[in-house]
Amino acid sequence: MNQLLNPGEKVQTLSTEFSYEVEAFLGGGGQGEVYRARPVARKGAHTPVALKWFFPHYVRLDPNLRARLEHAIDTGPPSDRFLWPQALLHGGVKQSDFGYVMPLREERFVGITDLVTRQTVPTFRALVTAGFELAHNYLQLHARGFCYRDISFGNVFFDPASGEIQICDNDNVSVDDGRGGAIRGTPRFMAPEIVRGEVGPDTQTDLFSLAVLLFYMLINHHPLEGAKETQISIFDPQAMTYLYGTSPQFIFDPDDESNRPLPGYHDNALALWDLYPHFVQDLFVLTFTEGLHYPEKRARENQWSNALIRLRDSIFYCQHCSNENFYSPGALDDSDGNSSVCWSCKSSHRLPPRMRIDGKDVVMLNHDTLLYPHHFNAEHSFNFEVPVAEVAQHPKNPRVWGLRNHSEEKWTSQNAAGEVKDVEPGKTVTLSSGLRIQFGSREGEVRL
Questions:
Q1: Cα–Cα separations (whole angstroms), residue 200 to 86, 147, 159, 195, 197
Q2: Cβ pair 9, 27 in contact under 8 A
Q3: CA spacing 20 to 30 A to 194: which of 32, 350, 418, 434?
Q4: Is residue 313 part of a domain?
Q5: How far apart are CA 295 and CA 305, in angstroms?
Q6: Where are the beta strands (DSSP E) in 216-261?
């Protein structure tokens, strides 16, 4: 139940006489309460916003809060995925009480907790896209000289249909100086060195928390909770310090099996780990083995971004049950690097056409595959809004498939027989084994 502001109450910005009117209570936590509000007496400004108002006792606990928010507002958001503070507010008489407004989260976004508790079951494509967006956008934050300090379930939301994310609670963000403020992080997500009390949050500890969050999203389990966890009878602060701080050990450590997941206790981890290709597993192993003790060894945001884009491109559908699987070979052949059978129905795989770009990046050419600017030009930023190519079925012969050019540039194709053709914008080239397509600065080779 809310206790700070009431519907109809007005609060003002610190810099102007512009006001917001409280409409409804949305929720609360340890720092304060969040409300839906609307701008008052501002020509052309009618978009509802989220208004966060802090508890007075929390303001006293975090004396740098106001200055931190002012710096964030002056700097602006690292990207549009952050529900970033827009203006500080005060309540009139009690100038010590304050809050801020930020964009209102859209209803299509749900919490990561909904994913972990299986209240939301997205496709692998949406899930992997959400993981990529997290890594990519935290990179934008860190590049601005900020650290987030509290990457965890409660601060990230995603669209189960598309994988688009929104990051909230950005009042936690501070300059990357290792000191921070009242927030040290969320239990189970804090880096071991924070749990041990050796350092404050910084970019390196953010990388640990990001990896924990990605592990939860993909594996639906905590990376350090294995056999050792089952030996703890009382899960008190001392036990948590032992498990996450003084004696952390990755459940899939390739050199030490003593903390492996146990059947009946950790079934999600046992079932899901082997679904993922080695290039994703390797980043988790790096972060949760060497990276437990040497923060500089942890996988960086761009490593996660590249691996998750690669994972997204590796998705293909089982010919029997239509469930998504991941392709992970060492070369373009007819073998699957993780398993030769579908994880769901256990039927043998029959791979769809696939294309290797510049001899390395494999894209599975499913019936619904779309290609984007980054596929054809490595210098392009990642953007899934406007495709530049799509797999298309022949209008008269459903057994024939092609790749349609939606870009503004002409492609050049050469089939296995050596025949060269131009593929103009809007036209389609038939997929055949050995087909090579020149997309400007990059080349793709197709295998069936």
A1: 27, 11, 32, 10, 8
A2: no
A3: 32
A4: no
A5: 19
A6: none
Q: Are residues 187 and 83 in the same domain?
A: no
Q: What would the two tokens of residue 75 be?
A: 């700097």
Same domain, yes or no: 225 and 166: yes
* pLDDT tens-digit readout, 80-111: 999 999 999 986 545 568 899 999 999 999 99
What mean pLDDT do residues 363-375 have?
Answer: 95
pLDDT band at 42 (very low <50, low <70, confident <90, very high): low
Rounded CA separation 287/292 (Å): 7
* Domain count along the chain: 3
Position 18 pLDDT exceeds 90: no
Which residue, 28, 70, 35, is CA-closest to 50? 35
Sequence letter at residue 271: A
Distances (CA, A) of 278 to 182, 292, 313, 328, 365: 38, 20, 15, 7, 21
Tell me which residue of 34, 93, 31, 87 sits closest to 62, measured CA to CA: 31
Place of tokens 């059978």: 341
Q: Do 436 and 359 share a structural domain?
A: yes
What is the per-residue pLDDT across 152-170, written as a single tens digit (0 to 9) for each? Answer: 998 999 999 999 999 998 9
Domain end, chosen from 287, 305, 323, is at: 305
User: Are 406 and 273 found together in one domain?
Assistant: no
Helix (H) or strand (E) holding 437: strand 436-439
Task: Return the percent helix, strand and coil in the chain, to nearest 5.
Answer: 30, 25, 50
